């Protein structure tokens, strides 16, 4: 993005939205756990679901394009070719929900507040701004310091805009339950702290007729009801107390969706295929702790997972096996590295496993032409080379006599089946494993503090990876709690590539650099990748409909609508 950006001539609406969708009805969705704040931009507290509905941003995302932004609060955007600054001309019609205009002063106040008190990802980017200033009567310009990358101006363009009038005499960095003045298509109508939040569509929403909003935000009310756990929320859906549900558990999807509403046609199940990067979900080694700081140990343990058995018996064959940190996308490494990939990797050849320069990593096979017994032999050999011998059926460190034992930290009872299958496999190597399942809050505390041996969790990448790559894989983040570098990765090659990704200027360069990084992450065995679906498992009651086209990023609930003629049965 450089030059001047305005709404393209002839642009009418996003292709995954139905501009003819009727307005009306109430949409009820489930949320798990609780909440204690309605400020989604502060670190304090756990914010309620759906708050994105209440806040407009300078620009709007398109969920059918990797990283394309369209004007919203800002009707005009200008940036030079080197992206060293970005200027916004605000839409003179932009309004907060009390009818007051959105002014450059509000944008500058928001920037200053989020730079000082916002979430870490915001602070990291906003600190790259050298100067923020008002230009003309209705414009704002951000000039950047050294250290910015190609993505910096894009992230600034996604800034929400807070009301200076409402916030200036309030403490930002604390939990709040007072309804803030905002500017989005919905306003908060009521809330029951920790149990329910209700959003009501604003009939006077200033941007309701803008092209980027046509076909979206169709419900009069959007309700999030909070449930203790996933089991209770599923029961609520079965009795039509919840209208749309995205299922995360393929076993439930396969076996439990046989209630009356589905059999009599009142509800439906849909596999909505998408093209977004799936999460890299798996057993993550904490390489800060021995023995997981030894590649041979990590590789040995990675050989012991029987993917075929787990997928067949636990996930009913619904999943595909992960082989990348960027699965389901063109960013994933495949085959032999290209000439361009090799050029990026070559300076680190002596410090990387030789496998990085060969075929892309693939999960170990457990059938023809390779058996589980073959994997067991190789794992045993790797452990012995690392000094771990078998004595009386127990894996012992030869130098110290200490047994090889560790804990797998889990954040959900649903993960226990996979962890138990892995535990049984490791017992064949003489390794003693214990499982610890915590509630969500305690699990997050341990995860953010990197206080675990092995954990079952995930990283979520996108089709446009950028500055977050250093947070995931960089040396600095490995030393800072809460920075998402769960594995403790610190390698000059990953640092170099993670820093390079936000600096690339073409899509081709982005793909090449990300694939090179993917080869290192997989062949260094920082985690044992598990499975992904490639589809959104969505169940809904028949009065609720969505456009036929699923966007690149998957199901977009804001594009759904209520069809009063769509009821075909009862719960």
Q: What's the number of extended β-strand segments?
A: 25
Count of discrete alpha- or pi-helical segments spanning 4 or more residues? 17
Give the overall pLDDT as a whole number: 93
- What helical percentage do the residues reach? 25-40%
Question: What strand line-up does the widest sheet have?
Answer: 1-5-6-8-7
Which residues sit in consecutive blocks of at least 5 with pLDDT less than 50? 7-12
Distance between the termini: 50 Å
Task: Choose one word for the global shape.
Answer: globular
Largest sheet at a glance?
5 strands, antiparallel
* Sheet/helix structural class: alpha+beta
> How large is the radius of gyration?
25 Å
Task: Quote the beta fraction.
Answer: 15-25%
Note the topology.
Elements (H helix, E strand, L loop, with lengths): L2 E3 L20 E7 L26 E3 L7 E3 L2 E6 L5 E6 L13 H14 L2 H7 L2 E7 L3 E6 L7 H6 L6 H4 L18 E7 L3 E6 L19 E7 L2 H9 L5 E4 L2 H6 L4 H4 L3 E7 L6 E6 L9 H8 L4 H7 L6 E2 L17 H7 L26 H14 L2 E4 L2 E4 L7 E6 L5 H12 L4 E6 L2 H9 L5 E6 L8 H6 L1 H4 L13 H9 L6 H17 L3 E3 L1 E2 L2 E7 L2 E2 L15 E2 L9
Parallel strand pairs: 2-11, 18-19, 18-20
Antiparallel strand pairs: 1-5, 3-4, 5-6, 6-8, 7-8, 9-10, 10-11, 12-23, 13-23, 14-20, 14-21, 15-22, 16-17, 24-25
Helix pairs in contact: 1-2, 8-11, 10-17, 16-17
